[in-house]
UniProtKB/TrEMBL annotation:
<feature type="domain" description="Reverse transcriptase">
    <location>
        <begin position="69"/>
        <end position="321"/>
    </location>
</feature>
<keyword id="KW-0548">Nucleotidyltransferase</keyword>
<dbReference type="InterPro" id="IPR043502">
    <property type="entry name" value="DNA/RNA_pol_sf"/>
</dbReference>
<dbReference type="InterPro" id="IPR000477">
    <property type="entry name" value="RT_dom"/>
</dbReference>
<dbReference type="InterPro" id="IPR051083">
    <property type="entry name" value="GrpII_Intron_Splice-Mob/Def"/>
</dbReference>
<keyword id="KW-0808">Transferase</keyword>
<keyword id="KW-0695">RNA-directed DNA polymerase</keyword>
<dbReference type="InterPro" id="IPR030931">
    <property type="entry name" value="Group_II_RT_mat"/>
</dbReference>
<dbReference type="Pfam" id="PF08388">
    <property type="entry name" value="GIIM"/>
</dbReference>
<dbReference type="Pfam" id="PF00078">
    <property type="entry name" value="RVT_1"/>
</dbReference>
<protein>
    <submittedName>
        <fullName>Group II intron reverse transcriptase/maturase</fullName>
    </submittedName>
</protein>
<dbReference type="GO" id="GO:0003964">
    <property type="term" value="F:RNA-directed DNA polymerase activity"/>
</dbReference>
<dbReference type="InterPro" id="IPR013597">
    <property type="entry name" value="Mat_intron_G2"/>
</dbReference>
Length: 465
């Protein structure tokens, strides 16, 4: 079903789809949607009704729950409940918070069903420069894109930040974008109902939602990408076939005539515009971007949006990308490093687990550390990271050793007796159940392969570059 929707959407860019509501409440769609909701990490997080996925399965059973939900969708009695608001501190110690909206299990299943139907249609329209919350795309693709074009002369960067993007998207403008592809009034009404569902704050007050789509909803990333695709289409219009930057020859001709070329790289609401030109050309792009976002109810943050040269470095998605001279030579290259903020965040997590007075069992501490270290190193293993991994592994080891010294009143000789061989080689710190501390320094560091326009989605074969 999804493959057909995607194929039809790609074949006819102007097609508006009708009669999609039957697909939304189709039993197979609802079963697939429920499986996705039950498999998410937030399955045991309740909404305003206090029910989790486990409660639904225990009280009414999955078949009965889905039958009741399908009946309410078909007869039009389904109404989404307000989302439960949670305020999560933003990383970096800024003191600011991110507003998360937690829908009920019922609403999550309907949103997942809507996503199954809408995503393959809109994926046919999304530009290849968008990487966030899309099938088979990841943050490393966005970093590889910046590295690729930065190496080829795109050295001026508009490092942009949208103020409270998910909270300020204009509903009317967003629904107009959705209507460009969707004609079924029942599907449109369902999407609008989720946008207008309201919020139950942490203090118990109910607040109407006149703008925005709450972070935390399954449908929200798709709707945010639909809204921000207006930026992708504007900035990348010249790259379309027949455009003034559609081929390398045309781009080179523009640069010979003194005109700039540019490239957008976007991951959800985080994006940069790479410019092969001057600082003035990049400032002009800043004005254009602001004008394009305004009709969607969005604006760039004056404090966080900056024009930078790649030689000064740019932080994006936790990475620090910089054009610099290779040590011991006169050649300059674009390097991808690990940013300072993720390192501080990792150390904070490690310190919280390895406090000297901690009463947590060694087994639990090592398991949690291994989860954190494996995930963190897997994300950053494509950067220039070998020295960082080694230094951080030493930091973790020291924290754990000091915790054990305090807990058991061990001296240094006790540590060496337990964690070295007869030849003086260090052994990994191991819990009583045999769980050993993960060695992040052993992670292989490799360059991430730039995939460009060859990234396939779930419903098509890879396109040629």
């Amino acid at each position: 079903m999804q493959a057909k929707l995607h194929r039809w959407a790609a074949a006819d860019p102007g097609r508006r789809f009708d009669d999609l509501f039957n697909l939304v409440h189709d039993p197979a769609t609802l079963i697939g949607a429920f499986d996705r909701v039950a498999g998410n990490r937030g399955a045991q997080t309740p909404g305003v009704d206090g029910r989790t996925v486990a409660d639904v399965e225990d009280q009414v059973g999955t078949p009965g729950f889905l039958n009741d939900l399908r009946a309410s969708l078909k007869d039009g009695s389904f109404r989404p409940l307000p989302v439960r608001e949670r305020l999560i501190p933003k990383p970096g110690g800024s003191g600011k918070v991110r507003r998360l909206g937690i829908p009920t299990v019922t609403d999550r299943v309907v949103q997942a069903a809507l996503k199954l139907v809408l995503e393959p249609i809109f994926e046919a329209d999304f530009e290849p420069v968008s990487f966030g919350f899309r099938p088979n795309r990841r943050a490393q693709d966005a970093i590889a894109e910046i590295h690729y074009y930065g190496t080829r002369g795109y050295r001026w960067v508009l490092d942009a930040d949208i103020e409270a993007c998910f909270d300020r998207i204009e509903h009317v403008a967003l629904m107009d974008r959705v209507r460009l592809r969707i004609k079924d009034k029942r599907v449109l009404a369902l999407v609008k109902a989720f946008l207008k569902a309201g919020v139950l704050t942490e203090l118990g007050d109910q607040r109407d939602t006149t703008t925005g789509t709450p972070q935390g909803g399954i449908l929200s990333p798709v709707l945010a990408n639909i809204a921000l695709s207006v930026l992708d289409e504007h900035v990348m219009a010249s790259w379309k076939p027949g455009g003034t930057m559609s081929t390398e020859g045309k781009r080179a001709y523009r640069r010979r005539k003194g005109s700039p070329t540019w490239r957008l790289v976007r991951y959800a609401d985080d994006f940069v515009v790479l410019v092969h030109g001057t600082e003035g050309d990049t400032e002009a792009m800043r004005e254009q971007v602001g004008e394009v976002l305004a009709p969607m109810g969005l604006r760039l943050s004056p404090e966080k949006t900056r024009v930078r040269h790649l030689s000064d470095g740019v932080d994006f998605l936790g990475f620090h990308i910089r054009w610099r001279r290779k040590r011991g030579s006169d050649k300059w290259f674009v390097y991808t490093f690990i940013g300072d903020r993720p390192i501080r965040s990792l150390k904070t997590k490690v310190r919280a687990l390895t406090h000297r007075q901690s009463q947590l069992s060694l087994e639990y501490v090592i398991v949690r550390l291994n989860q954190i270290l494996r995930g963190w190193s897997n994300y950053f293993k494509h950067a220039v990271a070998k020295d960082r991994f080694t230094a951080l592994q030493h930091f973790v080891w020291q924290r754990l050793i000091r915790m054990l010294q305090t807990r058991h009143r061990w001296g240094w000789n006790d540590i060496r007796r337990r964690y070295t061989t007869r030849n003086g080689r260090w052994l990994p710190i191991t819990a009583a159940d045999g769980t050993a501390l993960f060695d992040m320094a052993s992670v292989t560091v490799t360059r991430y392969r730039w995939r460009g326009n060859t990234i396939p989605n779930r419903w098509t074969t890879p396109r040629t570059a």
